[in-house]
Write a structure and sequence with these properties.
The complex is a heterodimer. Helix content of chain A is about 35%, strand content about 30%. Chain A has helices spanning about 15-25, 50-65, and strands spanning about 1-10, 40-45, 70-79. The chains are: A alpha+beta, B alpha/beta. The interface of A and B includes residues 68 and 70 of A.
Chain lengths: ~80, ~230
């Protein structure tokens, strides 16, 4: 099954990359733009067909390596 | 003092560190490849700067999971001393041996320049040959040196007197302008609870000889030799 892990900086952690992207978008003339946050998406192919098991495995991978819980939070979607 | 430098793929400051250690210790340090798992009999383990594993995922994240980290944890657990510089500091935070994390520099720029560090305490083996409140110059070169920790962690670090160095002016003023990478409370380096693990972003090993433009970093290495050699003799 495919698990998609989305890792984002926690609220309150400075995201200069998101800020720079936001400024560039404003420079392109886009209006009404609020805060911009940048993160990463990691796709995992995991053997198995039981969705909760795959979900739990992917969450453990995220906690142990894919996200740094000091600064980041994550969500896992299994399809 | 028996010292070793851990070498990960992508590390590029290990030779600078070896020169600095050899100048103070009087012999070459052991170079330990990241696949080795035996660090017995060492007084000091150094994790140098560079871009371990290409900084993939996060700076230091891959290195923190490599085979040698088990031996580094064991070295820390038996009270061994560890110095992590730049990427080494990032690796120590990723491994959980030091609190906090190093974020992208607040101005998004890679900063390659000299900085000045205020010594917060001079009663550790790392800083015994500096003055508390004194300032020394150090090169720095990093894109992700913006120290971050949540407020309770920062308060605990300050309360336990575990801030090693702060970015300051040459005169010792801890100002926002001196804090080029945006670190929380100007923190450039921190200690573990037992004061035997030090992580810092700047490179004191690159200023240990007049030919390098100064010797501001040398007291750190001389202090380690004096302190750790005494410990072994006692």
């Amino acid at each position: 099954m495919k698990a998609v892990v989305t890792v984002m900086l926690k609220a309150g952690v400075l995201d200069p990359q998101g800020k720079a992207i936001g400024q560039a978008l404003q420079g392109l003339g886009f209006e009404g733009l609020g805060e911009v946050r940048a993160g990463k998406v990691i796709e995992l192919e995991i053997a198995g067909s039981d969705k909760p098991t795959v979900q739990a495995q992917a969450e453990e991978m995220a906690r142990k390596l894919l996200a740094n819980m000091v600064i980041e939070s994550f969500k896992v979607e299994v399809a | 003092m028996k010292a070793a430098i851990v070498v990960f793929p992508g590390i590029n400051r290990e030779r600078d560190m070896a020169i600095a250690l050899e100048a103070s210790v009087g012999r070459k340090p052991r170079m330990v490849w990241h696949k080795e798992t035996d660090l017995d009999g060492l007084d000091l383990v150094v994790i140098p700067g560079g871009f371990s594993y290409g900084d993939y995922l996060r700076c230091g994240a891959m290195a923190s999971q490599s085979p040698v980290m088990g031996a580094i944890r064991a070295h820390a657990a038996r009270g061994g001393h560890i110095l992590g510089v730049c990427n080494g500091f990032q690796i120590l935070t990723e491994a959980g041996l030091l609190p906090g994390a190093l974020l992208r520099n607040a101005n998004l720029r890679f900063l390659s320049m000299d900085c000045h560090l205020r010594v917060e305490r001079a009663d550790t083996v790392f800083t015994a040959q500096y003055q508390a409140g004194g300032v020394f110059r150090s090169p720095m070169a990093h894109g992700d040196g913006n120290f971050f920790a949540d407020a309770p962690t920062l308060d605990r670090l300050e309360g336990e007197n575990r801030v090693a160095f702060r970015y300051a002016t040459a005169g010792g003023a801890v100002t926002q302008e001196a804090n080029r990478n945006g670190s929380a409370r100007n923190i450039a380096g921190i200690y573990s609870e037992n004061l035997r693990v030090l992580g810092l972003m700047p490179h004191p090993e690159d200023l240990v000889d007049p030919l390098m433009g100064g010797t501001d970093g040398k007291p750190l290495f001389d202090g380690l030799v004096a302190g750790l050699t005494d410990t072994r003799a006692a």
